[in-house]
Structures are given as C-alpha cells and as structure tokens.
Amino acid sequence: MEKKIVLLQKHHDKANFNSETPLLDNYIIKQASQDVRKDLSACYVLADEENKVLGYYTLSSNSVSRDDMPEDLIRKFPASYSDLPTILLGRLAVDIESKGKGYGVHLLMDAMERCLALSEQLGILALVVDPLDQSAVQFYRKFGFILIPDTGKMFIAMQTIRKLI
Ligand SMILES: CC(C)(COP(=O)(O)OP(=O)(O)OC[C@H]1O[C@@H](n2cnc3c(N)ncnc32)[C@H](O)[C@@H]1OP(=O)(O)O)[C@@H](O)C(=O)NCCC(=O)NCCS
User: Fold this and answer.
1) Is 81 a known active-site residue?
2) Nearest CA among 119, 109, 117 for reference residue 164
3) Distance between CA 111 and CA 5 in Å, rounded?
4) Model confidence pLDDT, tens digit, residues 63-105
5) 37 CA distance to ligand 1 centroid (A)?
6) Domain range enclosing 31
7) What CATH code is carried by the domain that includes residue 115?
8) Strand-strand pairing, 146-147 and 5-7
9) Cβ atoms within 10 Å, residue 163
10) pTM to 2 decimal places
11) Domains held by the chain: number
12) CB of 152 shorter than 6 A to ligand 1
C-alpha cells in the first residue's frame, strides 16, 4: 500500500532530515512549521511508522507575469490578465536513505492531485517549480514541466495535469 502524504504536524520527526541539499534540509528542520503558522505555505510530508519524515513538499499560491510565459500558451488569454494565477511547488525533497524508491514521484503526483482539486475552486493556470540545479530540471522535465525562459522556473499547465491524472 502506498504511504499516505499528510500535512506536517508536531509529532513528525524531521530533526535529521537529509536530502543532501542543505537549503531544503534546513527548511524542513527549522522553518517549515513557522511558515505554515504564518500561512505562507502548506507543507506535506511522507513519514514512516515512527513518524520520521522521508520526504516533503510545499505549496503556496503564486503568480507569474504574463510576459514571462510562452506566446502559444498566453495567446488566448485576455490582455487584462497581466499576472497569471499559479501554484508554486516551492520545495520537494526525499531523504537520502529513501531515494530511488519512487517517493519523489509519489510526492509530485500528490502535489499535482491537490492542485487539480484546488483548481475546481479557484483559477489556477499552472503548477510552477523553481528547480535548484540541473539535476532537478531533469527530474521535472521527465514529468512534463517546461522551462519558463529567463526565469529559471518551470511550469506544467493545469490542462496537462488533467490529462495526466
Ligand atoms: C529529486 C528527488 C526529489 C527525487 O526523489 P526520489 O525519491 O529519489 O525519486 P523517485 O525514486 O521517485 O524517482 C522517480 C523517477 O525520477 C528519476 N529521477 C530521480 N532523481 C532524478 C534526477 N535528479 N534527475 C533526473 N531523474 C531523476 C528516477 O530515476 C525515476 O525515474 P524512473 O521511474 O524512470 O526510474 C530527490 O532526489 C531529492 O530530494 N533531490 C534533492 C532535492 C531536489 O533536487 N529537489 C527537487 C528540486 S527543488
């Protein structure tokens, strides 16, 4: 049975989380709970039976400038939408001991499903990620994310997610 992904809670053990990406490790260890309390992000974790965090991701509402998006995507949108509504998958990481077991893809699909559910309640054009390095770009490309020129960010349109899930 697939492990459940739930909102980060007090009982989750994240003290030794190590994805070999210090920025993402420090975030879950030191900052995630505060950001959640301040309504800056929602943090979802995949944990084992002892509540040890094996992987996590965060979601926040977000927008991208119309000028940054590819012409073929925005052509059909009214010009009055200067900023386009998106969801930011701010962080995604899996602990080194759990890498290569499909948890990364499980977390990403869970994030996409959540965005799909949200998109029935508010307008969301796309899911956006901000890959930390070239390896992360390769990971997201595998799942259909497209680079947003000049920003380093990538996106996948909600319409594409709808077909995927
Ligand atoms: C990227 C990351 C989340 C992947 O997690 P994971 O649990 O090891 O990945 P999975 O086991 O679910 O792998 C899913 C697929 O992606 C591939 N993959 C994993 N990491 C990859 C990478 N860096 N580049 C390209 N493909 C990758 C796997 O080979 C697998 O493909 P397959 O099913 O065809 O074999 C994890 O390696 C990580 O935490 N990296 C450091 C932080 C990071 O880069 N986060 C993402 C950007 S912010």
Assistant:
1) no
2) 109
3) 10
4) 999 999 988 888 888 989 999 999 999 999 999 999 999 999 9
5) 29
6) 5-164
7) 3.40.630.30
8) unpaired
9) 8
10) 0.95
11) 1
12) no
